[in-house]
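@channel sequence for tomorrow's demo:
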Amino acid sequence: MNNNNNIDPKKLGGLLEAVSKKIGVPPQKLKNELESGKFDSALSAMSKNDAMKFQQAVNNPKLIEKMMSTPQAKALYKKLSGE
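structure tokens (generated this afternoon):
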């Protein structure tokens, strides 16, 4: 699941567009930040509690691995990758 090259660019663009509208950040800026490992725009749009939880998850690879192994995460990945 760690190879993001399998995700359909149109679906990824749609996801970026949806998140962009939700947090009020242009899609390209959001994409650039995420590709460079920055989450400033996303974090600034979250509540303090959610931002703290997100930071904890990002800093804990085991937690991310556990989250990505859930049926919901697998289904989302399949949908985005066109599988």
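heads up for whoever presents: The chain has a mean pLDDT of 81.
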